[in-house]
Amino acid sequence: MYHSWNMNPKVGKQYAQYFSERYQELPKPNHSMIAYGNGRSYGDVCLNGGGTLILTKRLNHFIEFDLATGLLRCESGVLLKDILDVVASRGWFLPVVPGTQFVTVGGAIANDVHGKNHHSHGSFGRHVVSLELLRSDGERLVCSPVSNREWFEATIGGMGLTGLITWAEIQLMPIQSTFMNTLSQRFESLNDYWKLMEQAKSKWMYNVAWIDCLAKGRELGRGVLTSAEHTVKPMRSVKYKEKGITFPIMPPMSLVNKASLKLFNSLYFHLPRPTQVVPLHYVPYFFPLDSIYHWNRMYGKKGFFQYQCVIPSQHEKSAVEALLKTISDYGLGSFLAVLKSFSNIPAAGLMSFPREGATLALDFPNNGRKTLALFKELDQIVRQAHGALYPAKDARMPIDMFTAGYPALDEFQRYIDPRFSSSFWRRVTR
């Protein structure tokens, strides 16, 4: 059984086939196919009900790494964790990382993932130097900003629909230590957040805010902004010992509810924090939830939704306030509520999600109709603000929102491989 990380939505029967050698040809099933890496997408962008999943986890080899320049070529099934484990102690780092290191390179490109530093480094795709795209007719295209550029831009953020990425070259960035300088600052309201974030963007490479989305009134939007940068002063190399725990069972119902959220959010907001800069290894800073294996199980058998939107900068303050007020009024808060800023760095791909403005991401237990009713109201706020939803985090986006949020859709469709499709794609283009 192959599913996405949030175990929602459920799709029909899927046929799985391993792709083990980058030189081999694609299978020729009687139905559509889509690549499936490590299954860390949310929703059905990596699923293919009634079709074939091309499993890429065996494409996990490094091909070439230039220690002097930081240019890495690897197969598309390599995890970001595998890369960081090799290069971080040697003075190099991925310029952009999402909230988990258990993402494949192919998945990071196909969804053009972003991190806490979009305001300084843009999205993952901007650091891809070249890639090989294998089409279902056997054609192999080496794509880059200068060679097969149109295919390159369609594939970055292209949701795996242009063909199979077999390998990619990534330009890493130099670092002097595996440690980060971090600073956490509590803010009492959404207005305080905007002021604090504006200051932080000019001082820190990485910025992300946790929001208490159950807060109301004058405390609406209160939270904690965490900023970080790679330490400049070299520190002795320390091998980080991950102390992971496993969420042991799949409960019949979600353990995330209004009572548990209210308690968690209050405790987390009032947690004592150092007022000065604190050194921290990169793993717990970038990937705090990776230390809880199978944390998605806490939402129970019905799984959960993630709602991630981007709001253009001219509407971000009023729209984010409206979104948080609506969520608070419904009482369906999220303990994983993240607010970040995107800069005006141009999109890497035709269908890339990041664009200038604010992005809000929240996880919600799947409570059926009540959750879907909330999303309808949130959709309306995003529509009015001319925002967009993130396909990689979606399980129920209305067709009109997908069309409005991605103006290059018609151009993109020219590059789709005729044998590639996904449950997501059929759902939003039928």
Set down the secondary structure blueprint:
Layout: E1 15-18, E2 33-36, E3 42-43, E4 52-55, E5 62-66, E6 71-75, H1 80-87, E7 92-93, H2 105-110, H3 118-121, E8 128-134, E9 140-143, H4 149-155, E10 164-171, E11 173-174, E12 179-187, H5 190-201, E13 206-211, E14 223-230, E15 245-246, H6 258-270, E16 278-281, H7 282-286, E17 292-293, E18 304-312, H8 316-330, E19 337-342, E20 357-365, H9 369-384, E21 388-389, E22 393-394, H10 399-405, H11 409-412, H12 423-429
Helix pairs in contact: 8-9
User: What does the largest sheet look like?
Assistant: 8 strands, antiparallel
Shape: globular
The helix content is 10-25%
In spatial order, strands of the major sheet run 16-12-14-13-19-20-18-21
Tell how many strands the DSSP assignment holds: 22
Note the total helix count.
12
Mean pLDDT: 95
Question: Which structural class fits the helix and strand makeup?
Answer: alpha+beta
Question: What percentage of amino acids are in beta strands?
Answer: 15-25%
**What kind of oligomer do you see?**
single chain
Radius of gyration: 21 Å
Q: Pick out the low-confidence regions.
A: none
Query: What is the first-to-last residue Cα distance?
Result: 25 Å
Please supply descriptive tags for the structure shown above.
430 residues, alpha+beta, 5-stranded antiparallel beta sheet, 12 helices, 24% helix
Overview in brief:
By secondary structure, the protein is of the alpha+beta class. It has 12 helices and 22 strands.
Question: Any overview of this molecule?
Answer:
The protein is of the alpha+beta class and 430 residues long. Helices cover 24% and strands 25% of the residues. The protein contains 12 helices and 22 strands. The strands form 6 sheets. The chain has an 8-stranded antiparallel beta sheet with strand order 16-12-14-13-19-20-18-21. Strands 5-6-10-8-9 form a 5-stranded antiparallel beta sheet. Strand 8 and strand 9 form a beta hairpin. The longest helix has 16 residues, at 369-384. The protein starts with 14 loop residues before the first strand and ends with a helix. The model has no long low-confidence stretch (mean pLDDT 95).
